[in-house]
Amino acid sequence: MVERVIRAGQHDWIWYMDFDILITNTSTSLTNLIHENLENATMPDAIDFLVTDDCNGLNDVRAFHDREKEQSGRSLGDQESMDLFLKSNAPLTQHVMRIPQWTINAFPEEIGCYDTHKMKWAKGMFVVHFAGAWAHVIGEDPTGHLMRKYEPEIL
């Protein structure tokens, strides 16, 4: 799906997240967040891809996944694929910028899987992501439970 949107060439930026997020600050502009982070780049016009770390590293890069599966029959996980890609020094890695997790992918206290900034979601942050809620919250519907808990925090 993301590949199809990219190939259409109709957007400057595409924000891709899982279904288990809740935008908690509706006055925050994703465009402003992008531009604020690009202010820290040496060559902001060269940046095409913003990524965030968490306690597991990064997310999926399809080429590394496909190549590993073809060569060894082993499927790489999302974070492992991205990590290998960024360590490869491929020309495309020059277009990638890592930004703090909490800016566009904050995890709540129940899911303590933070990047090196160790910042959990706090009221006023743009989004809370309930990644892997099933592994951190006991109950029949962990993601739904967290969605209901954090819904009153929406600004």
UniProtKB/TrEMBL annotation:
Cleavable signal peptide: none
Keywords, ordered alphabetically: Glycosyltransferase, Transferase
Keyword RNA-binding: no
GO biological process, one term: protein N-linked glycosylation
InterPro entries in alphabetical order: Glyco_trans_34 (IPR008630)
GO MF: glycosyltransferase activity
Entry GO terms, CC: Golgi membrane
Domain of life: Eukaryota
Name of the protein described by the UniProt record: Pc18g00810 protein
Annotated organism of origin: Penicillium rubens (strain ATCC 28089 / DSM 1075 / NRRL 1951 / Wisconsin 54-1255) (Penicillium chrysogenum)
